[in-house]
Amino acid sequence: MLITFKCHASPDVLMLDSLAQYLLGIIGKRLGERGVIMHDELDLAISKLESAIAVDKKERAEHDGHFHEGEEGHEPHELPPGLAQRAFPFLDMLRAAKKEDNDIMWGV
Question: Where is the region Disordered (predicted)?
């Protein structure tokens, strides 16, 4: 199922409900049929999401250090997209909403 986040300061952001639930959980919100991130909650939401992205990047960098490409006995593999890539449109929307003191809504 797709979730559409809406904000007057930004184009709509669509994502699968599993990703929406994960990102909202990071910022302390729950995915319901309808919801809102109020403009006065945006500073904390942005901070929490940026912190989670930093932790994810650090963990991915540590994993990259253990990459065994071409070594015997190790299958080549590719890392899936990181949190920074998956969260960028949403984080961009949060920042745009903050800049214009807008709320972000879904399910409307």
Answer: 60-82
